[in-house]
Design a protein that fits this description.
Helix content: 40-55%
Strand order of the largest sheet: 1-6-5-4-2-3
Number of strands: 6
Order of helices and strands: HEHHEEHHEHEEHHHH
């Protein structure tokens, strides 16, 4: 769904993965809105994150039908004694989400929640077997990105204990099995961490993916009564750049000496056959590369 052949850094996908992490936090007001929306509609904050990721993938892939990985604990509550089992039991399964623009946002998110609940019954399944059962064969992966909701309830219990025992979240750079992984961390301000493989994803593209996931969540918080198609992933600077590109694409462009280097690059891309169909996408990648220091 991320079209990594197009977004790649230009190097071959060989050798040892080089994972880089970038992060941001939602504003407290936005986080509170998301929690309230989730509570009122009987789905989880995790569902909001998955919905935002699905919307972002839909825009990047230009498809209303996307697939990404979701992580399960591998410890079903109905399995007696599962909490006494020592070791890591997590598993990742494909989550297929259809995002038709005309569908009501809240009913869509409730559907995402329902599908994830159904997946719980198969959380023990091997991903190798799942691919064999699917219609995707050969070296083509089932998905290129993964979403993980890092909820650690034990941390809150430890903080409530009397005595000297305290929980301090650490800071680590993790590896991963996928080119792009979004890790969401609940709290007063919802945290978003993007882990990406620098062999296949350029830094400016990774910044754009994280930025647009943030904006998708913000749009969910601000437009709960809207439709999927109402969610915009462009900020003010990107909308301005899009307008400039459209005006240059529809008529005579301005003299070159009045354009910034970024505008010249964008206009050249718009006039090329390969760039004609990717207006928003190319604006996002190029503009976010220049704006990354401002926003992150």
């Amino acid at each position: 769904p991320l079209n990594l052949d197009r977004l790649s850094s230009g190097g071959e996908y060989t050798g040892i993965p080089e994972y880089i992490e970038i992060r941001t936090h939602m504003e407290k007001e936005t986080t509170d809105k998301l929690k309230l929306i989730a509570r009122q509609n009987r789905f989880t904050l995790n569902t909001c994150v998955q919905g935002a990721w699905a919307k972002m993938l839909s825009v990047y892939s230009r498809s209303d039908d996307v697939v990404f990985g979701v992580t399960f604990t591998g410890r079903p509550v109905n399995l007696h004694g599962v909490n006494s089992v020592v070791g890591l039991l997590i598993n990742t399964l494909p989550m297929r989400v259809k995002a038709p623009p005309e569908q009501d946002l809240m009913s869509w998110l409730r559907g995402v929640q329902t599908f994830q609940t159904e997946l719980l019954e198969y959380q023990y399944s091997s991903l190798v077997e799942v691919k064999r059962w699917s219609e995707i064969h050969g070296a083509t992966p089932l998905f290129e990105s993964c979403v993980t909701f890092e909820n650690h309830p034990i941390a809150n219990r430890i903080q409530e204990l009397d005595g000297c025992l305290r929980w301090h979240p650490g800071s680590t750079i993790e590896g991963g099995a996928y080119p792009v992984t979004l890790l969401a961390e609940p709290g007063d301000r919802l945290g978003l961490r993007l882990l990406y493989d620098a062999r296949t994803v350029r830094p400016e593209v990774a910044d754009a993916i994280l930025r647009h996931s943030y904006l998708a969540l913000q749009e969910i918080a601000n437009k709960p009564d809207g439709k999927i198609g109402d969610l915009s992933l462009l900020d003010i600077a990107e909308l301005r750049q899009q307008t400039q590109w459209k005006s240059g694409d529809q008529g005579e462009s301005e003299p070159a000496d009045t354009l910034s280097p970024l505008q010249e690059e964008i206009f050249a891309e718009a006039k090329s056959p390969s760039g004609a169909g990717g207006l928003v996408e190319q604006v996002v990648i190029k503009a976010c590369g220049r704006l990354r220091e401002e926003h992150f």
